[in-house]
Amino acid sequence: MNLTAQDEIAVYVEGVRQALAGLPATVRDELLEDLPEHLAEVLAEGGGSLHERLGPPDAYAAELSASAGFVLGTPIEPPGDQSRIAATAARHRARIDRALRRADERVGPVLGYPRASEFLTLLRPAWWVLRGYLAAMAVAFMLHDHSSPLGLLPRAGGDDFTAVFLLTLGILGSIWLGRRGQPAARWPRRLFRFGTAFLVIFAVVGFFEVDSAAQRDSYYDQVSYTPGPGNPYSDIRDVYVYDGQGRLQVGVQLYDQNGQPIRLGEAICWDAHGNEVPIANPGYPYCPVQAPFQSAEPTAAPSGEPSGAPSGEPSTGSSTGSAGDSEKRPAPTTPPA
Where is the composition biased (Low complexity) (predicted)? Predict the structure, then answer.
């Protein structure tokens, strides 16, 4: 720190000390104990002089005295208990500040710096960007209709343009606030800290939500029966379901005992010439024209979205797939080639 900054801090501290002359000596000393370090951090943030950032010394002293339970050197009514409580709180805050300062000095060498706060200062630009991203995600979360997952970008309503706009606005606004530093006035400063705490909590909750979604996707992959080494279903390309009368069912959905959809084969259909054709069915089979057994006109499966796992017992005599019981499978009308 250069001499000019030291002189500015010394003059400001002396002005605050004179403004707090009416306070008890013990309270005044505890309030002023960490003031030089705080003022040095304010100057390190940049953005103007101490007078520009914090206001005149007497105004700053008024805030300190109010936090200790005094106004203009006079205890707040009632003068007894509240003054002692405020003084006790000030002493505890001073002890906490001293403990944090000692921890700062001890952890710093581990990170390669005299103090850990110096290392954290280097991370401020990264925090500004992260804070802007979290703010954009919070706004998108409140504007989203939740009909589909929000994802990792602030796509409110699934619009990519909205995501870019919110992300740009949030990051630029966060950088602007970061360069200005914390507000000097009490209530704006409290509001600023409350917003920061909210974003931190939002980030933690969002992290666990993303982790939970990743675990669900992992389980979904496990029950999807995707082709792989040792998988008995790796050779299945399509599934054909017949009812008790031997009629092919179209648009069938398969679920396991936990209500998770079962994926077999690949959603690809080829014509007789080997060309890929669009799939018109939302379920099985993907290619009804390639059914292994000829039957009457294929019937569509009952429509409607299932709620969880399908309810009810399966009807007797119906098959659940091409690999079903051969005794209940309809006999082919023509022998397989």
Answer: 298-324
